[in-house]
Design goal:
With 197 residues, the protein is of the alpha/beta class. It has a single domain, classed as TIM Barrel, CATH 3.20.20.70. The protein is 27% helix and 21% strand. An 8-stranded parallel beta sheet has the order 1-8-7-6-5-4-3-2. Strand 2, helix 2 and strand 3 form a beta-alpha-beta unit.
Length: 197
Amino acid sequence: MKISPSIASANPLQLGEEVKRVQEHYDDLHIDIEDGNFISNITFGHKTIKALRSVTQLPFSFHLMVTNPYDYLDQIIDLSPSIIFAHVESLLYPSDFISKIRKRNQKCGLAFNPKTPVDPYSYLMNHVDGILIMTSEPDGQGQLFNVAMVEKVKKVAKNYNFKGEIWVDGGIKYEHLHLLGEAGATHAVMGRAVFGE
């Protein structure tokens, strides 16, 4: 399983140094863009992400936790994304969003909050490069890992025979990796577990 450090958990006063600290050990840097609407927190604007691009050649995996993902595509498409995830909860027509990313020759994925079932979106499984399963939600307790989400990972991997990347994100610690890998996850987003050490 590949680990993608989430820069949102790094020291905000030393983002450049934090990136340099981890770039030798990982193949990807995970960037959560949160708009204060879809989720109550606000993370990074375009200027900050562009500044991060100037200090590292690591590919950026983007996780758009925003109300309107379309608003962000032009800003991030030229920043070497390894994949762009948007939440199904914010997409009225997911196929249209997938098509727009495909036309830009980029990898795309769909993200699912813990409460959102994957079954209604099974018709899209063969049209995306990745599925991101949130393993926690903003809970006021530090986003605790929810072990029940392991079954959702299994469903994507086994029931749909999904051949793309299966990402997991939210409260993940090193002791959870074996369980998630056995379920079929291929990528783990880890924030506090990486930058807190």
